[in-house]
């Protein structure tokens, strides 16, 4: 071997040691096939990288290398190597990553880079290769790819839209600040890509509702400009979606700051809360209306309702399940609203689902959610159910008596354990939400008829509220009538009153639709009556017939003398006090002592003006 070759071999060997690489070579003869027995020269460094010491352990044959390739890689590597050495174009390169089995049986990642020394025609060709151990780098790359894949999957499943901004020169309004709106951010707003929604500040600021823009931007700037980091960024505001509709969103954010507290980068999310907001506004509207009833001194005079209001306040302070019973129209949903609003959970969702309004096949997925692929037509990424969405809040299971029998077992487990599996899911999900159930059916009878599980019934009825029908508490009819009269006078800017005959018919009417029927009738009468006095002639025919029917029944002797007398006195004094207002005026008009009026009012639970109760 010439001095030049010796020098080249020495230099290559030293370079390989420096790079922690192993060299190898092959001589390839034209028209001579390459097979497993082909000679290959492996340097000691090559063998050492794989854990071998000498040629006896790792012979100078091609098969020593190919036999140790991972089964998933072998065919690809051999075919690529063969194709490369037979290619005379010199346009391709040989640079591959693959796994080799070490002497100890462990597979590690390696990279081989090779080149062909092509000599004159008919002379042997020389292949020179270098083996690098890239296992640590490859593992880190795989870990990074795993985390990126996980991030991508989680991002697709997110109902929130992340965003990020790099703050240049600690200036929140600097035009050079770099924004990143995630695909999920654009998706919740109805935009497709960066072309539709560019990565600039104005893409967001220009779609803020005009009424919210000033407070929203001010909250953002106050958060960034507070170098102490104590000002949170959490706000609700409206954004215009791609279809032009405004939706409510809840936005949160956090900021990375330097040692002086100057902002360097801020990131956050937005979440569409439009449905929750509308539900809350509707609940609040009903709540305000009925809170007026609950907190008006003259509204409820019956002992049953006074007791119920006290129980509502008491039960709202604990988390035990509640079963609300009563006929349709008595206000079960309103009571549930009030319990939630008076509880410590009022800042969290209050979700209501009517168990009788959703097909049996869909009810389970609505309550518990489902994973992607759980059934035909399942949404990509799955879907959270009502229990998961109401975490830390309250769920009202309305019309619980209509709950399918086969689903009652799963509901029982959730009520007891507060955990569940989504449809098609394998991960146990725990949530913290209060359960309120409501029904107009007799669950005890259903239990006896094996239409409702006894264990679920007793578990739901830890606390119970029964709302009596309006006909069972006639003392509340006139106060409620006067309440709705005032409400609709204010609403429609009117000054209407009811006649004495109208009040008498109201107290004798059965009110099968309960408070809802009374409220709806009062609104209808306010609109359809042309005069300020709503007389008996203005009432529906079915109500006007009530007097005649009841009188006929009384004449036939259904009531004994004492009952008839008490019924007459109750109605007589209710109507008189309602018409004349004060007991002194009533006493003057009907020519009885004032003390008699006060005693009769107390006997029949007839409400008096607050200054007359003292």
What's this, in brief?
It is built from 23 helices and 19 strands. The chain has a five-stranded antiparallel sheet, with helices on both faces.
Note the topology:
Blueprint: H1 3-19, E1 21-28, E2 41-42, H2 44-49, H3 62-66, H4 71-85, E3 94-101, E4 107-117, E5 125-133, H5 135-157, E6 160-166, E7 178-181, H6 183-189, H7 201-205, H8 210-225, E8 233-240, E9 246-257, E10 263-272, H9 274-294, H10 303-315, E11 322-325, H11 332-342, E12 350-354, H12 360-368, H13 386-389, E13 394-398, H14 405-417, E14 419-421, E15 428-430, E16 434-439, H15 443-448, H16 454-460, E17 463-466, H17 477-492, E18 497-498, H18 500-508, H19 514-528, E19 533-534, H20 541-555, H21 561-580, H22 583-590, H23 594-603
Helix pairs in contact: 9-11, 14-16, 17-19, 18-20, 18-21, 22-23
Oligomer: single chain
Structural class: alpha/beta
**CATH evolutionary superfamily of the largest domain:** P-loop containing nucleotide triphosphate hydrolases
Mean pLDDT comes to 84
- Which geometry do the CA atoms define? elongated
CATH architectural grouping of the largest domain: 3-Layer(aba) Sandwich
Q: Identify the strand order in the major beta sheet.
A: 2-1-5-4-3
Sheet bearing the most strands, described?
5 strands, antiparallel
Q: Radius of gyration, rounded?
A: 41 Å
Describe the overall structure.
With 614 residues, the chain is of the alpha/beta class. The chain has four domains: 3-139, PAS domain (Beta-Lactamase), CATH 3.30.450.20; 158-272, PAS domain (Beta-Lactamase), CATH 3.30.450; 277-468, Rossmann fold (3-Layer(aba) Sandwich), CATH 3.40.50.300; 473-612, Helicase, Ruva Protein, domain 3, CATH 1.10.8.60. 44% of the residues lie in helices and 18% in strands. It has a five-stranded antiparallel β-sheet with strand order 2-1-5-4-3, with helices on both faces. It has a five-stranded antiparallel β-sheet with strand order 7-6-10-9-8, sandwiched between helices. The chain has a five-stranded parallel β-sheet with strand order 12-13-16-11-17. A hairpin with a 5-residue loop joins strand 3 and strand 4 (107-117). Helix 14 (405-417) crosses helix 16, helix 18 (500-508) crosses helix 21 (561-580) and helix 22 (583-590) crosses helix 23 (594-603). The longest helix is centred in the N-terminal third of the chain and has 23 residues, at 135-157. The protein is elongated, with a radius of gyration of 41 Å. The termini are far apart. The model is unreliable at 1-12, 553-557 and 610-614 (pLDDT under 50).
């Amino acid at each position: 071997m010439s001095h030049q070759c010796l020098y080249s071999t020495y230099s290559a060997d030293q370079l390989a040691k420096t790079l922690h690489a192993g060299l190898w070579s092959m001589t390839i003869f034209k028209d001579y096939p390459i097979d497993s027995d082909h000679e290959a020269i492996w340097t000691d460094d090559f063998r050492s990288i794989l854990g071998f010491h000498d040629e006896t352990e790792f012979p100078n044959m091609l098969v020593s290398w190919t036999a140790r390739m991972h089964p998933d890689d072998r065919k690809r590597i051999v075919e690529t190597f063969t194709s490369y050495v037979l290619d005379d174009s010199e346009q391709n390169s040989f640079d591959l990553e693959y796994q080799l089995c070490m002497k100890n049986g462990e597979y590690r990642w390696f990279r081989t880079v090779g080149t062909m020394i092509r000599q004159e025609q008919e002379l042997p060709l020389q292949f020179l290769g270098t083996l690098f151990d890239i296992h640590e780098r490859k593992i880190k790359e795989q870990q990074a790819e795993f985390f990126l894949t996980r991030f991508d999957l989680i991002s697709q499943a997110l109902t929130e839209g992340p965003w990020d901004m790099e703050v240049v020169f600690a200036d929140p309004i600097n035009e050079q600040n770099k924004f990143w709106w995630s695909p999920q951010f654009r998706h919740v707003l109805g935009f497709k890509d960066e072309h539709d929604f560019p990565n600039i500040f104005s893409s967001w600021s220009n779609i803020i509702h005009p009424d919210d823009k000033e407070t929203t931007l001010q909250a953002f700037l106050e958060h960034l400009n507070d170098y102490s980091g104590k000002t949170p960024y959490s706000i609700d505001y409206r954004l215009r979606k791609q279809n032009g509709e405004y939706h409510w969103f809840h936005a949160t954010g956090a900021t990375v700051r330097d040692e002086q507290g100057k902002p360097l980068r801020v990131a956050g999310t937005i979440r569409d809360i439009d449905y929750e907001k509308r539900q809350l506004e509707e609940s609040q509207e009903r709540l305000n209306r009925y809170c007026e009833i609950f907190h008006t001194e003259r509204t409820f005079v019956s002992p049953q309702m006074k007791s119920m209001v006290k129980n509502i306040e008491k039960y709202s302070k604990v988390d035990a399940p509640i079963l609300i019973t009563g006929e349709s129209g008595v206000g079960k949903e309103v009571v549930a609203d009030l319990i939630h609003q008076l509880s410590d959970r009022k800042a969290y969702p209050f979700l209501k689902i009517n168990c009788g309004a959703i097909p049996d096949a869909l009810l389970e997925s609505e309550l518990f959610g489902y994973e992607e692929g759980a059934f035909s037509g399942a949404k990509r990424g799955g879907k959270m159910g009502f229990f998961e969405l109401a975490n830390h809040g309250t769920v009202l299971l309305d019309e619980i008596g209509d709950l399918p029998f086969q689903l009652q077992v799963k509901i029982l487990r959730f009520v007891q354990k507060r955990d569940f599996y989504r449809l098609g899911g394998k991960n146990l999900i725990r949530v913290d939400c209060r359960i309120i159930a409501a029904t107009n059916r007799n669950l005890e009878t259903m239990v006896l008829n094996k239409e409702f599980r006894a264990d679920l019934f007793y578990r739901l009825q830890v606390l119970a509220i029964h709302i009596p029908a309006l006909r069972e508490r006639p003392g509340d009819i006139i106060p409620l009538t006067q309440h709705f009269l005032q409400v609709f006078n204010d609403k429609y800017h009117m000054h209407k009153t009811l006649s004495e005959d109208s009040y008498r018919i109201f107290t004798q009417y059965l009110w099968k639709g309960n408070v809802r029927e009374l409220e709806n009738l009062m609104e209808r009468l306010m609109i359809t009556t042309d005069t300020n006095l709503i007389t008996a002639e203005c009432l529906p025919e079915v109500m006007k017939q009530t007097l005649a029917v009841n009188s006929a029944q009384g004449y036939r002797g259904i009531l004994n003398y004492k009952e008839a007398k008490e019924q007459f006195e109750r109605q007589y004094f209710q109507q008189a006090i309602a018409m004349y207002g004060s007991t002194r005026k009533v006493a003057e008009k009907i020519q009885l002592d004032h003390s008699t009026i006060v005693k009769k009012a107390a006997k029949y639970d007839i409400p008096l003006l607050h200054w007359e109760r003292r």
